[in-house]
Amino acid sequence: MSSSTTDSPSAAAAAELHPLFTASLGVRWRDLDAFNHVNNSNYLTYLEEARLQWLKHVPGPWFDEQSMPVLAASEINYRFPIEWPAQLNVELFCLRLGNSSMTIGHRIVDAEQPEKLYSDGHVVMVWMNPHTGKPVPLPQAIRDAAEQA
């Protein structure tokens, strides 16, 4: 694990941006592994929870029966182990808007010591038609929310 916050392009870009959203999450005892720190798979759960919290705050329709987001790619750089107990802030950033996709940068930091970076990286969300499996245009509500950040 590296302690640098600028090893990846998404980390450097996110450090320069205003967050789309910051979710506050507590570490649960069940998140720990045999080494007494948060298991790496739980980072994806934390990121998913933060994205869902953000999407609940997006004004306007961002999904319907013809258009739903799916996770197309994810990258997580593990910088420092998370131990229990801890309160986390998951910061989300818009790195790129495409025709049907959005690249969301993320940082997981300690809520009480925001300079303590646990992880960073990005995910790519693609909006698709669930019936055809084909990409559809990014909803205007998502574009508007990303551009307002």
Q: What does it look like?
A:
The protein has a 5-stranded antiparallel sheet, with helices on both faces. It has 149 residues and is α+β, with helices and mostly antiparallel strands. The N terminus is likely disordered. It has 3 helices and 5 strands, in the order αβαββββα.
Short description:
23% of the residues lie in helices and 34% in strands.
Overall 3D form:
globular
Strand content: 25-35%
Helix content: 10-25%
> Low-confidence parts lasting 5 or more residues at pLDDT below 50?
1-6
User: How many helices does DSSP assign?
Assistant: 3
Instruction: Indicate the structural class.
Output: alpha+beta
Instruction: Please report the distance between the alpha carbons of the first and last residues.
Output: 30 Å
Number-wise, the strands total 5
Rg for CA atoms? 16 Å
- Sheet with most strands: strand arrangement: 1-3-4-5-2
Biggest beta-sheet profile: 5 strands, antiparallel
The pLDDT mean sits at: 92
The run of helices and strands is HEHEEEEH
Distinctive features:
149 residues, alpha+beta, five-stranded antiparallel β-sheet, 5 strands, 23% helix, 34% strand, disordered N terminus
